[in-house]
Design a protein that fits this description.
Layout (H helix, E strand, L loop, with lengths): L25 E10 L5 E9 L5 E6 L7 H12 L2 E6 L15 H11 L7 H17 L4 E6 L1 H12 L4 E5 L16 E6 L7 H10 L5 E4 L17 H19 L2
Parallel strand pairs: 3-4, 3-5, 5-6, 6-7, 7-8
Antiparallel strand pairs: 1-2, 2-4
Length: 255
Amino acid sequence: MSALRASKFSNAGTDACENGTKCKGMAMSEWVKLTASDGNEMDAYVVRPKGEPKAALVVVQEIFGVNKNIQLAADEWASHGFLVIAPQMFDRFEKSVDLGYDKAGWAEAMRLAGQFAPDMQPQTVDVDAAIDWLRNETEANVGVVGYCFGGTMAWLSACRLKIEAAVGFYGGSIVNFAQEKPQAPVMLHFGGQDEHIPAEAIGKIQSAHPEIPIFVYENAGHAFARSVDPKAYVADAAALATKRSVLFFEQHLVF
């Protein structure tokens, strides 16, 4: 397993969002409508970079909807030159979900997440609709990046859909689909102190796919890249994971 064991991280700078403002280099954001192949309709948050996109990304949400955190994450990816779309993955059950991280938000998130299909196939179809939208907008290569639930969807997208690369942040259910084989390059990030994803689960994923780069950030727990949540956010781990992910996408998406 590729793992980061040092307690101190490189703090290489990115054009990250600060204080809830738009990221540097981000030109425009908007909401668009998507229709999946099975007829499901959903909204999606789109961010266009300054100038021509060097590649395109689907950003897949946590179980809290396309909330401020996911919009800021999409903004940050756009600041690195990517055309970004973040689909509302709960629109199948309930429209325009935008939850916080308090007790009520968690309860509602768990209720909604309980409606996901065990095989995640309808959710995979929804991600595919976002991929199709990107391919209609640009000839650039397309990747998927996701957080928590979205991290699992990034994995499944690499296994089931036509994309060029995927990155998953702390995808808690990846281990349940470890038997599936990615058809595109994948990078995974986990927190060493994640109470939701035990080391044994990470080990099973790595054993099944020794070719995949997996990074464990020992000073970080679950959702360490969630910048709006001081209880979860670990700035140095998030910065390094993002830096590695940007370089990974540039390697596999940009030619």
